[in-house]
Amino acid sequence: MSAPAGGPEPSGPAAPARASAQTLDRGLRVLEMIAMSDAPVTLAELSRQMCLHRSIVYRLLRTLRDHHLVAHTSHGYVIGTRAQSLGRRTLPILQQIAKPEIAKLAARVGLTSFFVVRDGDEAVTLVSVEVESARSRNVYSPGDRHPLTLGSPGIAMLAGESPRAGERPEVTQARGRGYAFTRSEVVPGLATVSAPVSSAPGHAVAAVSIAFIVERPGHAQIEAVLDAARVIMARLRAELSSGAVLPGMD
Question: Which residue, among 116, 85, 99, has the nearest Cα to 207 in the 3D structure?
C-alpha cells in the first residue's frame, strides 16, 4: 500500500503528541469562535465552520464545558464563566491602571471610552466604559480586535514609535500632533480619537480612545484623551521601574 500524499503518518511517541496538539488547536478554535460571536453558536454552525463532523465538535465542546470555558443554552453555546474570569486577568497591571482612568474619561467627555493594547499586528480592546448617548456608540467591547493599521487606536500606537518607511500619512500626522483621529475605518459611521501610551520612549503598547458619531472632536475632548493617556503612561512606567512585567510588551 502506498503512503499518504503527505508522507507516512508518524508512529511511536510522536503520534500521540501530534494528535494532542491537533485536539488542543481545534478546542481553542472552537473557544475563539464562540467568544467572537455576538449570539449563541449552535453545534451545527460550529461543525460547518470548522469542517468537522458534529461528533468531533461535540466532544470538544463537552471538554470545554467541563472546564466552564463554554456554556450551553437553549439557543446554542456561549462563553463560560471561567473564560470570562481568565479574560479579566489579561494584562492585570494595565487593567488595574487603565480602568479607573477610562471611567473618569467617559464621565468627563460623556462618550464611550476604551483602552486598547497592541497584540502583534492587531489592536485589541482591553477596557471599555460605555456611555448611552446619541453622540456615542457602544461597539468596542473587551476582546474586540482589528488590524493595527486601521482606526485611531492602532494609528496612535504606530505614531508612538519611530517613523517607518511607507507608513500611512495619518501615522505621521498623529506623531506630530500627539493623537490620531479616524472615521469609518473600523466601524462604518463611527469616529474615534486616540492617544498613545508608551512603556518607554518609542515603544507604544496601548492607546486611550473615545468614540462618537456626529461631531468632530473638540479641543476639550482631545485634551481629556491626552490627559488620560499621560496619567496611565506615568503610572505604567512607575510600575515597570519597580519591577512589574508586561508579558511580551515591555
Answer: 116
Where exactly are the structural domains of the chain? Answer: 14-85, 88-241
Long-range contacts of 238-244 (CB under 8 A, 24+ apart): 239/93, 239/97, 240/199, 240/200, 244/93
For the chain, 250 residues long, give each residue's pLDDT as a single digit of tens: 444 444 444 455 565 667 668 888 888 888 888 877 778 889 999 999 999 999 999 999 999 888 888 888 888 888 777 665 555 545 577 888 999 999 999 999 999 999 999 988 999 898 999 887 655 555 677 778 889 999 999 999 999 998 989 999 999 999 999 999 999 898 888 899 999 999 888 889 999 999 988 667 889 999 999 999 999 999 999 988 887 666 555 4
Question: CA-based angle 124:190:83, to the nearest 5?
Answer: 30
Q: How many beta carbons lie within 10 A of that of residue 166, not counting itself?
A: 4
Per CATH, is 88-241 categorized as 3.20.20.80?
no
Query: What's the CATH number of domain 14-85, 1.10.150.170, 3.40.50.300, 2.20.25.160, 1.10.10.10?
Result: 1.10.10.10
C-alpha angle 226-228-234 in degrees, rounded to nearest 5? 100
Strand partners, 208: 115, 195
Task: Give the pTM.
Answer: 0.68
CA R_g for the chain: 21
The single residue listed with the C-alpha cell 486577568 is 89
For 204, 235, 248, the CA distances from 95, given in Å and listed in that order, are: 16, 12, 16
